[in-house]
Backbone:
């Protein structure tokens, strides 16, 4: 890690306290709103202060990751995601946070002094640049944050070619650069190994002293509710079945696993897909607020599933 802005911040602010990292992107399906429910169901030994390894095969926005890093005693953490741009951003924050901050400072200054039409033009030019950029990882990471903070609803969606295609948003004063949090995240990630790839990569890190949190792409509640795609790969029912076999593998390794997913019974009381698939495990239903929907009046509470392979 570069030691300029980062070291200065450390010397002046956090010598005697643990910095609190929080998600640095808006992320559809993020778990911030149900962290209290997840926390209640964490393994007892972790809550009692035992050092455990942590593995998250679909890290996404990282709400659970940062909650655990802020509040529990992790021996080591391993995060994986299939989204190359997202993983690049995690890696850049971990190793090149100063350069990332400098890029974002320039983008934010230009955006904030622009008129609405200039902002819109800037957004689409940066979206095009993001999709075409190949060799500058730090700039790619900065553009991802910029687009995430200024696009419609904070979505991450790509087309079949893998191109980011979310339209411009209309935020009056988006916080494109959150310098303090980026530095806190960089600090938190120093003991985290970061990988891009399929969730089964995480098999290499799992043993009986491991807690695994699994937050896959949710099974759509209806044919029309699958409004976004995080990559140009489809996570269909066959993938959900493959994931259940991975859950079995974790159990055979005597590791602790907690998995979240949508509850198909919200729309079809007779849909027992997950109840049958995970019948050998503990299945609980919790209320969660649907945060992103094309219709504002549809943003109500629905049930989600929390599935685990341990009692306590």
Residues:
């Amino acid at each position: 890690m570069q030691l300029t802005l980062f070291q200065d911040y450390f010397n002046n602010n956090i010598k005697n306290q643990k910095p609190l990292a929080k998600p640095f992107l808006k992320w559809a399906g993020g778990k911030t709103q149900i962290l209290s429910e997840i926390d209640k169901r964490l393994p007892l030994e972790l809550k009692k202060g035992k050092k455990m390894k942590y593995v998250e095969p679909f890290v996404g926005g990282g709400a659970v990751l940062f909650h655990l890093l802020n509040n529990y005693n992790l021996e080591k953490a391993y995060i994986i995601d299939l989204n190359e741009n997202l993983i690049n951003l995690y890696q850049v924050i971990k190793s090149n946070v100063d350069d990332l901050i400098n890029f974002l400072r320039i983008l934010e200054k230009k955006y904030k002094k622009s008129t609405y039409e200039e902002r819109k033009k800037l957004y689409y030019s940066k979206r095009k640049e993001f999709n075409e950029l190949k060799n500058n990882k730090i700039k790619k990471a900065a553009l991802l944050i910029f687009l995430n903070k200024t696009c419609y609803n904070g979505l991450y969606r790509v087309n079949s070619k893998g191109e980011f295609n979310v339209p411009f948003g209309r935020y009056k004063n988006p916080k494109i650069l959150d310098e303090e949090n980026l530095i806190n995240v960089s600090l938190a990630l120093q003991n985290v190994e970061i990988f891009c790839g399929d969730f089964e990569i995480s098999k290499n890190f799992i043993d009986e002293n491991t807690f695994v949190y699994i937050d896959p792409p949710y099974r759509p509640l209806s044919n029309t509710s699958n409004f976004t795609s995080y990559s140009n790969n489809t996570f269909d029912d066959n993938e959900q079945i493959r994931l259940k076999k991975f859950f079995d593998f974790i159990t055979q390794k005597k590791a602790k696993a907690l998995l979240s997913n949508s509850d198909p019974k919200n729309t079809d009381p007779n849909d027992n897909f997950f109840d049958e698939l995970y019948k050998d495990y503990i299945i609980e239903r919790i209320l969660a607020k649907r945060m992103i929907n094309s219709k504002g009046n549809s943003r109500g509470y629905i049930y989600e599933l929390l599935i685990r392979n341990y009692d306590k």
